[in-house]
Amino acid sequence: MSTGTRKVRNSADIVAGDQRSQRRPLPDEVREVADCLIAALGDNLAALLWHGSWARGEQTAESDHDLIIVLRQVNDGLILAIQGLFADRSGWSTYIKSEQELRQYPVTGRVQFQFGLVPLYGEFEAPPLSPQWLAEDIRLLATNIHHECRYLLVHGTRKVHLGSAAEFLRVRNARWIYYQAKLAVLALKTRELLLGRSYPETRAELRSRLTDGDERAVVDAIDRWPELRDGFEGDVTPLVLRLDSVMRNLVAELDSGEQE
Predict the structure, then answer these.
(1) What is the Cα–Cα distance from 20 to 168, expressed in whole angstroms?
(2) Which of 90, 125, 160 is the last residue of a domain?
(3) Which pLDDT tens digit goes with each residue over 107-126?
(4) Are residues 202 and 151 in the same domain?
(5) What's the rounded Cα separation, in Å, for the pair 184 and 48?
(6) pTM of the prediction?
(7) Number of folded domains that form the chain
């Protein structure tokens, strides 16, 4: 399941959708930022990759442009140079790693380097995957989602009802659970690999494979977020409980498979 070095090209030669989706022009803002990073980082830049919902063509109003920036080495000057480039740019999220940090990457969290990437510049060696590590990935995602859901349900909603900047807290709580739903979708996609199937690059592809109503509802919560957001800002409890239940069932499914 491991992969070798990923060779990519200069940003001027790239179109989005190089991997599995229909080819389409790279957005001007992505090309501009890529060219600025290439110029600012020079030989210190090993690879630059665009990923996330925009790269997959399924962005929502909540979506940022996501970049993976792989450096030859990380130092204060390079981090500050990247900070300066994004100082006046909103709607971006960067994940910065050195080549050495990728070689030493934990066994969890490696899926992001293997799928759904649009390469913009350079080359990098993606950390390999294994079935055992995929199971640990799902368990870690479930553990983190459980904690966030239960903490928010027990403590976060109480603060809203006590009137502590209620409007801000309602928006924040809903936005945070939206992010947990995105992580749950990643866990469901990872399960597909563990079952020996191809990785579902998009939410639509994942949803077409799901048979469980709650799992499909989690995917729908992201796709329909603009129309559902006001309701969840009013009461996020239904989505919190659904996420917690889906993750409990997913871990139980793992445990059952390991006992067979």
Answers:
(1) 40
(2) 125
(3) 999 999 999 899 999 999 99
(4) yes
(5) 26
(6) 0.84
(7) 2
